[in-house]
Amino acid sequence: LLHGLGGSGKTQIALTFIEEECSLFTDIFFIDASTQNTIEAGLSEIAVAKTSGRTPREALQWLRTTQEKWLLFFDNADDPKLNLNAFLPRGRHGNVLITSRNPGLSVYAGANHRVSDMEEEDAVPLLLTSAAQDDTPENQKIAGEIVKELSYLPLAIVQAGAFISRSGALESYLSLYHSNKARLLSEVPTQSHDDYAWTVYTTWHISFDRLSLTAATLLQLCSFLHHKGISEKLFSAAAAYQVKTYGPTKEEVEKTVEFLGRFKGSTGAWDSLQFMDVTNELRAYSLINYDAQTKTFSIHPLVHAWSQSILSQPATDKSCMTSIIGMQITALVPEEQDLAVILLPHIDALLPSHDVANLVVVPAFDLEYGVLYYYTGRFAQAEKLLLSALATRRTALGEDHFDTLVTMNHLATTYLHLGRWREAEGMQCIVVRKGTLMLGPDHPYVLVAAGSLAAIYTSLGRDSEALDLQVEITEKSKRILSEDDVNNVTAMGNLGVMLMNVGRLEEAEEMQLVVVEKRLKNRGGVHPDTLAAMSNLGMVYAKLGKLAKAEETQVVVLQRTRETEGEDSAGTLLAMNNLAVTYREMGRLDEAERELATVLRKRREFLGEEHPDTLSAMASLAWTYHMLGRFEEAKELGVVTVQKRRALLGDAHRDTIESMERLIKTLEKTGKL
Question: Cis bond leading into 154, ω under 30°?
């Protein structure tokens, strides 16, 4: 069995195999397997040709009894409703080759091969040949860009080649494609490369028209997501959503609730079997693929774009998918915050605008999307949506409602990460005070909120206040929570950081070792909380002068953060910064300078010139220049760092003092006594 997406070149591969290996077979029979009628007609022709009768049954009888090495080729057996078993001859002396979009036919096959997209080294010559273009290095480069844009799908490449051969537009094809994609992928070439009569879009339209309403809707809703990493859990978690007195109204999510209800059983619980039936229907036409290892679905990029292009109500369907994501975020518990990273590519596809001012979530799942942006380090987007969510909750619930308080807490910690520490302090003080009055001083939520306030004190350079408050929080957490409770371990980790800041390094190391052990045990090696704990331990090692241990730990943190969060996330840049500082202390100055320059460039781009994290990167790079003996560069950057830190943090902040001390040493080296 050769199975794959329509237009993936299955038939051509089969014909090439038959041509190359034809000497192995005594007879080769070709049958159009697109319908029962064409199969029966093909078998009847075999019966007539072999003078064994005139019916399909007589053809199958001849194939079963003839002791020869015949090959029976069923081409385009795509209809999943067609029972091919009725037309397969019994016996052990013949061979059957099937091409189909339906991977379900693998039940008949001793050898089962999925035909995927072409490799670039094969795709480029196919394009240039079908386009009648010379195989020059310049044309190869242009062709490489075109086949990449076409996701290496053979039929799309052949269609593009036919258009280029007619128009000569090799260099301009991509710009034409971007503005006329649907037309170009629907256009039938005058001169065909082979006998395949359908275009890319026609192939998929035929499959789409055969789908049930639920399967068609699911495919089109998924066209708003990223084409990879689509999971059943995204939909099953959303199905448990209950409409609240604030946020989207019942009418706004009515279509979404109705769609998700199609996958519920008679008890109202999610029915995975019903979801599987629908996804199997899509898989039968190769419109989606399933990865058993990751338990996720994917859609070919061209199918993904095509299925969105045929939407009859794109705004309504986008609103439905926005609601599903919002409902799924609502179902996340704190232990699943790492799933936010998995959801982010889907949200970027759904809400592609990077202009924060124009960021709008419809329906208004502002809190849900704001929290997800917070957990993935998109703090500017988080602030806008959380401000909107806070205004909604103040109006609907009042200033002193617990849900209003929760939203304020998210916004305050967002301000902390944005470097707006005084705004964060003012709001978090209100959260702690009101939470204490509402729930009592020892309530777990109040302790978490107080821990956020202690972290704000740390950022403001008020280390003694931060340590005193965190000691109190940690003692209460140990008393009222279990040893391995997430919030208890978080309190211990925060205390370790604050011990490090006041120079109690041995105590900090001991504390962070315990935290890392518990995080690895309870969260696993790639959870953001585990990586944060390992990062803190690496910083303690560096301050203790245990540089080999610091490097070993920080290399692991950087590698895992890159894999889970991406190259440009706040966590990745922090890990790069910490490792670079360790390299500097080890005397590996060139490596340190290269990494710190990258961190500074990216933080300037993503956070702005005045953000405390940008200033931290400036300070680290300035001191690296000093150690490299590049004193003029160190002075120039050091002066800017001191000026900005004095203005932002004040003269008494530990970071300002450190920058001033280092600048003094640099000025001495440049003779500015």
Answer: no
